[in-house]
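Intended use. Records like the one below are meant for learning the mapping from a protein sequence to its folded structure. Do not use them to infer anything beyond what is encoded.
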Amino acid sequence: MDNLTLQGRLDEAMALYDSLCQRAGPLGLLPEQIDPSSGDFLGNHPQAFSHVGLISSGALLQRALRHEPFRTQPASWDDSDSQETERTSRLDPRAG
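Structure written out for the chain above:
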């Protein structure tokens, strides 16, 4: 879904998102895996990582539909080494 969104194929991404949301169980919970041919739930249920992925992909898709800029990498990757050193030294009681 994210790949489709980042390619600008928003109609396909939205269709995939809707399909996945419709596959959730009666309580809105998702399993670890869904058998693509039968729709049966496989693996752990409920699976937090599935929910995190769905929420993250939905947020990315929403930003794209609103034509808002979005990041393709976490903000922490943009930090300079000096900021990282400062954070680390504050967390390490042996530092400084």
